[in-house]
Every structure is written in structure tokens, then in C-alpha cells.
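Re-running the complex after MR caught last week's input typo. The corrected sequence lines follow. Everything else is unchanged.
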Amino acid sequence: MSDRDDATGGGFGYEETDGYGDEEGLSVSGAARPGSSPSPFGGERHPDPCSLVIFGVTGDLTHRKLIPALYDLGCHGVLPFGTTLVGYGRQELSDDDFRALMRQAIDDHYGAEVVDGALCDRILETPRYVQGQFDDADGYRRLGAALEELDGEGGRGNRMFYLATPPSQFPAIVGQLGAAGLARVGAYDAEHAAGKPVAGWTRLVVEKPFGRDLATAHDLNTIIAGVLDERQVYRIDHYLAKETVQNLLVLRFANGIFEPVWNRRYVDFVEITAAETLGVEHRGPYYEEAGALRDMITPHLIQLFSLVAMEPPVAFGADAVRDEKLKVLRAVRPIPSQSVSDWAVRAQYVQGVIAGESVPAYRAEERVATDSSTETYAALKLLVDNWRWQGVPFYLRTGKRLARRVTEIAIHFKRPPVLLFRDAEAGGGLQPNVLVLRVQPDEGFSLTIESKKPGHAVALQPVAMDYSYGVTLHELPFSAYETVLVDAMEGDMTLFTRGDQAEEAWRIVGPVLEAWAAKPERDSPIYEAGSWGPEAADALIARDGHTWRRPLKADDA
Ligand code: BG6
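Corrected-run output:
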């Protein structure tokens, strides 16, 4: 029994899970916003009502992310009237139990005292719960009957199946949806032909991780393709829904000054960092299986890389953007299996100090093997064999228990080819320009440029031209989860990973996964919690004459 098992007072509750989907970072806003506040979607979003079928309703992901996100969308008047929650799970629950459980999730997240009860009643007006095992055909027949009843009500026949279970259940659920005739193909084409929403769509939303290597991702794609059209499948990567990540496309393609220098002639190297201060917390069993390469690099950082490196799409639409991302992923030079250590570094944290507090080693974390060889840090070097990027290294790194929580993309430009300031340089050295896109926290971007220090002598100093979202927008519009939910309800696939992209990302990391699996390094390498990672990662980038940035907060710059 987990702590929350009896939280609702009845004989039901949240399952003890493996912590899947229980990431701190996927936060929806911590405070309930008043129902009257203007929609952050600016009134431009028109998601369709639907029956939202959640698999894994008693799990942490539903409790901590999905339901609070739905409530916040309700607060902004964005959740369409007629949307009905349908839970499918293994526990015996009545519809009322289910409603109470969802209400509990909202209260837990925002605090019962500030939650708008009338709004909750509206969102949870007629929830349905269907009990069944994930591989039990009868359960899916009952689910089908419940959905048919609801089709006649507000959802207009639209159905969204959301897989919020541990990934091992995905194949069974998809297969059963197909066998029960619930995976209806069709409305998508009609919808696009008509240029407007057509009632009766079916969509599948799949959480990460999508497989654990190329073979398993391919198998899962094949199972899905056996029952649904790719255009009905929404593979979530919440990183793509982060505001600054979306802004990257605008920055690159809506400004005249960046794209002309966005290539090997001007760019020296690119760093993509996702550093966390958190450890694995209670997600031990999941993380032991995953490790940093599978958990962060393959799904998130490779996606960020593809946005930075892709060619301009012909339109800002799902197909055009995803085609370009796929092209650049395909242009990534295969990592040679015989020299993986020149391209990739792994390490695990040992005891250290973060924000003045001593934190335990990874091997001492809850439900982690005391001799675990799972990496909690991974760094990867990628080269892209195309006209734009030939010879420009992209370095990706991520780690838990690092010195600071920061996700950023840094584009390092080449030094100017002039000797003019040789003397002036002597003081501090001429710093090449760096464009930093701060994904989180302190969302925004800054460009460092050299400038003359005031005074008689010609001395140089770098200054930053900085844009911070926090200054112009007092509140960030929405969480990544709210964005992906609304996009899926609207049928906008731009931020979702296509099946071929998911496989391509696994192809890129494949040689590293194989080399690491063949040689689990029990005694190596390590890094102290609270540091910036292992020395081997410094060496990886130093071999090319570069050093990692030590990211600062905007106001420290
Ligand atoms: C998840 C990973 O996908 O992303 C977690 O499974 C990680 O391990 C999380 O903590 C980070 O998300 P964010 O939004 O905080 O960067």
C-alpha cells in the first residue's frame, strides 16, 4: 500500500507504482488560477470534445500530471464542454469512486481550499470507470459499450485513448483496442479533406519511453500500425511542448539575422544540456531499467538537437516539420562501435552536497541495486554529415544530481578571423559569440557579444543581450502537459514524435547502448552529486578543443 492508498477514505486508491511518469519536472502550474482569468491560449485554440479514455488511472502520472492539467485547462475555459473522462484500470471502482479519485488528484495538486468545486463538478460531471485487465478482451468489450453510450452524448463520437501505464503494457492495450474494434481508422482523412474537424475521430496518445532500443520501438510501431493510421498516433515528448523550445523555430525562421549564420561557416559547436538537481527519488525500478541515455537523451535531447539542426520546413505544420527533423536525424554519422568511448560518456553519482544538503549516492537510493551500473549521467557527441553541419560537433549531456537545474541550448559561434584586437585581448581574451536558449528555468535567450570597456584603453568585455520571458510575461502560459493535451484534442501533431523519428533516435544511440550493455562498468566512472559531472565528459569535449559551459542563471550573467 502506498501512502495515498487510503487517502480518499474508501477502499480504493492509487496503486503502488514503479514511479513511472512520476517526474518532478512535468509540473503543471502549482496554483489554481481563477476561472475568470483569460485563456492563455488567447482564445485561438479549439480542441474538440471527446471521451478521454485513460489507461492507468490509478497511477502517478494520471494523479500528478494529467488530471491537474485537465483542471487547469478547465480553469481557462479551454477544456471543451462535453469532454468525458473514462477510466480503465485493474482496480474495482464504481463511477463515483473514480470521480472521487480524480477530485482527490486535483485537491492534492492545487490544495483543496483553492479548488473551484463547481468547475470540478463540471469537469467530472459524468466520469465512467471500466474495470479490466489490460489484456482482457471482455474488459475492452465493456469499454466499447460505455463509449457507445457516451458517443450519443457530448463527445460527438470522438475518442482519445491515453496510455498512462508503464510501457510494458502498451503492446497489450493497443492490440486489445484493435481486437475490440475500438481503433477506428478513418475520420482523419475526412477531416482533412473537409478542412475542418469531423466528428468521430480516434486518437492514441502514447507516453514515453517508446521502446527501449531500435528493435522494441520498431515492434511497438508495427503493433500500432496494425490497428491505427500513423496520423492517429501522438507520441508524447513533453520537451517539445516547452515554450522556449517552440520559440526556437520562431527565432530561427522568423528572423533574418540567425539563419544566414546557422551553419558550419559560422558555428563552431553546439551544446545541449539538461541538468537536474533531483536524484531518482522513488523511481528506482524504472530508472534502473532506463538510465540517462534512454530516459533523457534518446527521447528529449535528440529531439531538441533535431530542431536546432534541421533545415527550414516548407510550412509550420506537423508533416513539414517532422519531415525535416527526420532528415537531419538520418544525416547523423553512425557512432562507430569500436570507439564508442570517443563519442559517449556515462557515469553515476556518488554522495555529495546540493544546496547545502548532503544527498546519497545513486546506489543508496530507494529500490536501486547496491551494485547498480546504471548511468545517471550521459554525454554524447554527434556529427552531422550534411552541407550545413559537416564538421560541427553537437554535444548533448544530461545528468541527475548535478550542480544546478538547467536545460539550455548553446550555439557557439567561431572566433572572428581578425588580429585587430590582439592587444586588447590580452586582458581577458576575446570571447566568441554565444547564443544561449534557456529552456528552463529563467526561460528566454541571450546573445553574448564583445564590446569595448568604457575608458581610454581599448579593452574588450562580453555583454549579453538578454530576453527573459519572466520580464515580459509574468506567468508562463502553460505547462507542457496542458499544451500536449490540447494539441492532441485539436489534432495538431507538430509537437509529437512520429514513429520513424522515434526509431531513428534509437538508431543513433544503438551502438552506445550495445557497447555499454556489453561492458557494465561496475566501478566507473563516477561524479560527485552537486558537481557538473565526470571528468571523462570534460575530456570528451576537450579532445576537440572545447569546454562545457557552466550555465548561470540569467541574473548571474
Ligand atoms: C522525464 C524523465 O521524461 O523528464 C525524468 O523521465 C526527468 O527522469 C524529466 O526528470 C525532466 O523533465 P523536465 O521537464 O523537468 O526537464
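None of the earlier attempt is carried over here. The mean pLDDT is 84. The two ends are 47 Å apart (CA to CA).
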